[in-house]
C-alpha cells in the first residue's frame, strides 16, 4: 500500500505488471506459521530416528511446502493488500498454525485435526483464486488451471477426513501431487501469466533465514537445557557451524548463481524479442524460478534436519528413558536441567 495514499479498504485483485521485489510485513507474519510446522516436524523426526520417521517428515514437509508455494505464487501475481486479502491471509495463517499444532502426530491421533487445518488453508486459497477469476478477465485461462487443481486437491483433503488410515494418507499424497502439477501446467500454457522473479527469490530467502534461525535456537536450547555439559557444548557448536554453512551455501552460492542465471535469461529473452517486452519479469523466466524454488526447498529441508540431528544427539547425551517424550524446548524430568527453555 502506497504510503500517504488513501485507498478503499476493499479493492478488486489485479494482475501486477512491474511489482517491486519486496516482501510485505503480512508475508513475513504468514511465514512464521510455516516455520512452526517445520519445527514440529523436526522434533517428530528426532523422537523417531528411523526410516519411517524420515519418510513421514519428508511427506508432511512436501505438503506444507506446496501449501506455502500456492499462497506465494498467488500473492506474487494478485496481492492487493486490501481488507479481503489480509483477512484471507490471516485465516490461512491460523490454518497453518493448526497444522503446526497437530504435526507432531499427523499420521496418528492428530491426523484429522491436521487434515482439517490443511483443508481450511486450501479453501482460503481456492476462494482467493475465485475472486481473482471474477475481477481479472485476462488471467482467467491460467487461473482456470489453478482452480481445477486446487479444487480437486481440496476435495481429496475433505474426503480424507472420513477415510481411515492408510487410505487417508494415500489421498494426501495424491492431493499434494496435484498441487505440484498445477503450477507446471500453468507454466506450460502459451498464454501463461508473468511471474515477478524479483519478488520470489526474496520470499524464499526470508523463509530460509527464519528456519535457519530456529536451527541456531535449537542448538542454543540444547546446550542450555543440558547445563552446559561438555558433550552438549560440542553438539551445539557443531549445530551452529552446520547452520552457518547452510546459510553461506545458500546465499553465497545457490542464491547468487540463481540471480546470475535469471539475469542471463532476461538478457537472452531481450535479444530474441528485440526488446519488445516491456515487462522484465516475463513468463519465460518461470522455469528458472522453479530451479530457484527447488534449491530453497532443499535448504529448508537440510536446516530442519540440522535442528533435529542436534536435538537427537543431546537426547542421547542425557539418556532420556525410552517412550518418554518432551515438548520442543523442554527437558525431561530428572535430567540435569528441567527448566523449560524460552522461545
From TrEMBL:
Superkingdom per UniProt = Bacteria
Organism (species)? Microlunatus antarcticus
| Upper classification of the organism | Bacteria, Bacillati, Actinomycetota, Actinomycetes, Propionibacteriales
> Secretion signal: which residues?
none
Q: Does the keyword Signal apply?
A: no
Q: Does the keyword Hydrolase apply?
A: no
Name under which the protein is recorded: Low temperature requirement protein LtrA
Span-the-membrane segments of this chain are 52-75, 110-131, 143-163, 169-188, 200-220, 226-251
Low complexity bias locations: 280-313, 328-343
Stretch list, region Disordered: 262-343
User: What UniProt keywords are attached to this protein's entry?
Assistant: Membrane, Transmembrane, Transmembrane helix
One Pfam family named in its UniProt record: LtrA
InterPro entries for the chain: Low_temperature_requirement_A
Compositionally biased region (Acidic residues) = 265-279
Sequence ranges of Basic residues compositional bias: 316-327
PANTHER family xrefs: BLL5714 PROTEIN
